[in-house]
Amino acid sequence: MHIGTHGTHEWLPGKEAGLGPDDYPEALIMDVPNIYPYIVDNVGEGLQAKRRGQAVIIDHMTPPFDKASLNPELRDLKSGISKYYDQKSKSPISSMAQFRDLVLRIKTLGLDKDLKLDTITDQNLEDIDDYLKEIEENKTPFGLHTFGVSPDEAYTKATTEAIVSMQKDLMGKDLELFREQVQKNIAKSGKEELDAFIRALNGKYVRAGTGNDPIRNPGALPTGKNFFAFDPRLIPSRMTCRLGEQLAEELIEQYKAEHNGECPPKVTINLWAVECIRNEGTMEAQALSLLGVRPVYNASNQVVGLELIPQHELKRPRVDVVFAPSGLYRDIFPELMALLDKAVSLARSADEKDNFVREHILESEDKLKQLGVQEDSLARRIASVRLFTTPSGAYGTGVSGTVQASGTWEDEKDVAEVYFDKMSHLYGQGFWGTKVEDEYTYLPKGFSKTVFKNALSGTRVALHSRTSNLYALLDNDDMFQYLGATGLAVRTIDGKSPVVMLTNLVDPSAPGQETLEKFLGRELKTRYLNPKWVDAMVDEGYAGARFINKMVFNLWGWEATLPESVSDNDWNQIYDTYVMDKYRLDIKERFKKSGNLYAYQSILARLLETVRKGYWKADKKRVDQMLLQFNETIREAGLACNLNICNNEKLMQFISDRINDMPSLTTEEKSRYKSALDDLRHKAKTEDADADSTTDGGNDKIYELQIQDDKWLFKQK
């Protein structure tokens, strides 16, 4: 039995499909039954568990949902804006002081960054007020789901209303019947999960059914199913293509509005299987439309080919599109990869004005010839490749692990090189997971990396999608190691980050494009800086503490890859919420009671590392407070020796130096701390401390602080 989404053996090296006895996942499990409880929203990765892990899925509920509401600071700001407009109508002169106060509060809360406001005017206040309403009404998960237990009555009703709010076409009696059925399905999901689990243990049938985000797909309820997705030949559908066309035009118009009417010549899109399954190929449809290509369907509505959209109908340039799919996307949707490759070839063939695809491929072809490609046809093939990802049997960009090990690099280019190394395998144009230099040995080592960099160069927009109401940008490391790393890669090549956008498909009735700053800012304010959310998550005990720790690390991941997306104000608010506990939620003590004070310690270490590397310009008061609490956790629980603590020599030296500058500590106390940290560094070097558990507050090697011969010493437990 496998507990927890995103397991282990289904991601081990081996063929993408049809695994044999020599492939690692097959060799590991052989004929052992694999019963696998899995969150209902993550069908894409669940399919991998079935295809490469021989899993029988038992899907379970997401956490319950409710309206986010506003934290006290945002609530006061909203009230202040209303009072300002009231006062302005009565006394314009006296209202100026109110306006200056509002501007200061808006900047402190980072709302100007979220909305990309260089200056704040009277008119902007209306936009900010609308944004606050959006935050307040946002559907937000609270806490975690316990397998086999349905939410309590209050959360059942709140989740029901979140689902009902998406049903724009239902009215009157039909809407009430729908509401009643949804509430019943949520209420019985817990029992269904346990019953399915028992059936699986007894070797009996587990019913099949669709999965996906229950808010978007109420048919996913009740849970307790062995979920499935859909026939990939049916995507993108005709309706999805119409939506893709709309989104493509909106993206172009948004870009033109901010760039003096210039059309973006190149867009790089991240493709995920989990997102494709949730949005039924909307991103693929958007990409096809950017290229000026559309699907051809048969009588069964299956995609059987492509055709060019004539220039007189398109009425704009063909936008060059580069794709950076995940390894899972490569495994599950090879047909879609082939379709996108064909679309690029079709767009390239159009010998016409305003065709960025053809223009860029011809330029790249000439460069490749200069770099040593001997055959014209080969140069054309390589130059036309627009799909790059990891080789067969490999997954992930490698960026997350590198970002974790922040003590091992100082230049962001080192992080980018990891991305280039992992993702520079060619797909399409007759290649499949190829390093060109392996096939054409006269070409120099690293040639494929050059091809990848050349394809990325000139990217003006980096694009990803978010379709789930549950998962946002800080729930896991995958978003920053794909979208963030794509932005970092382009900045490394061209010296400037692209515009980073999200195609927001969370509410299918209101699709659109959003900047990364707005999407991330709203997520912080609806969840991680919201005392209602924080209280619910801390209440989950050990797992809740672990989740918050991961969130802080993932925010660091965005900082490391796209520093412009995270501000000092964001870090200040994280500090105020979790270190200073400004909402008086007793966070540290509750972490301690949950048995996971190491997670709290790891949060402090990550915050201090962000300061050390110069990303967060925290004032001395904040740094000193974090240092005191960090060392206090060591005295209380020992020290979790993970990648960002005892294996980070630079951080340990930083802590030692800053402690030495603290006037609140006596000379004797400073000496003791220095001795203790020196002892810790020695142990880390000589005992090969664990280096893989940063985000979990890992504690394979735990040290406790003891006094021996009047000196502080770390002793391994």
Give an account of the 3D structure.
The chain has 717 residues and is an alpha/beta fold. It folds into four domains: 9-66 and 141-229, no CATH class; 69-137, no CATH class; 250-513, no CATH class; 529-716. The strands form seven sheets. It has a five-stranded mixed sheet with strand order 10-7-14-15-16, with helices on both faces. Strand 1 (34-39), helix 2 (43-51) and strand 2 (55-60) form a beta-alpha-beta unit. Helix 27 (597-612) runs antiparallel to helix 28 (620-637). The model is unreliable at 688-717 (pLDDT under 50).
Please name the defining characteristics of this protein.
717 residues, alpha/beta, 5-stranded mixed beta sheet, 3-stranded antiparallel beta sheet, 30 helices, 19 strands, 52% helix, 12% strand
